[in-house]
Amino acid sequence: MNIKSKIPSFFTLLNLSCGFAAILLADLHLSSILILTGMFLDVIDGLAARLLKVQTEIGKELDSLADIVSFGVAPAYLYTFISPYDHWTMYIPSFFILIGSALRLAIFNIRPDTKYFTGLPTPASSFFLIGLFIGVEFDSTVMQTLIDHPSIYVSIPIILMLLNLSKIKMFSFKQMGKNINYNLFILFCILTFAMLTMINYKLSMPIGVIIYIILSLIYSFKIHK
Asked: Which of the following CATH numbers is that of domain 3-114+123-167: 3.90.180.10, 1.10.3470.10, 3.10.129.10, 1.20.120.1760?
């Protein structure tokens, strides 16, 4: 038995477990922490697979199955907790989060590997949603005011789904290399997020994702010139 080949899958299963635990806890704060932990583990399993040179088709499929739970089902479920009204129609927007994540992961699996993502990655859309959850949980006036508008509450999942399925080329933080311009985009995004966190951590995640999307649009425009 080759134990080395099982190491990436171990981290993938931990990611899956974090997603399931986030659903079981059903707590905006603690569940958000678990989803963030799942994101960290998602990065680790990919790094481990590349460093150990044990990338497999089974590992790739397992990774997507874990991601749909941690970055699809869990955030979609938690989104219902910040609904402005207690009515069954307010559950509908969460389905857009789930469907967008599932389709995005399925499309990702059949596309050839590139140094960039096509469409907003599911961890990025989950990161945006976690910012909303934390903002609402810790009484961010801006977040609460936004979510109190049913039209905004409904629009956010639809916009995220459209971004998930878009053709926009989003740069990958895993692909820093010899391309200086590509590295500068990534470093600027990281530094901006760090500054936002110091200024207002409640708003840093959603705004950070918006900046990531804007920079990716600029990057996508540049490579098509």
From this structure: 1.20.120.1760
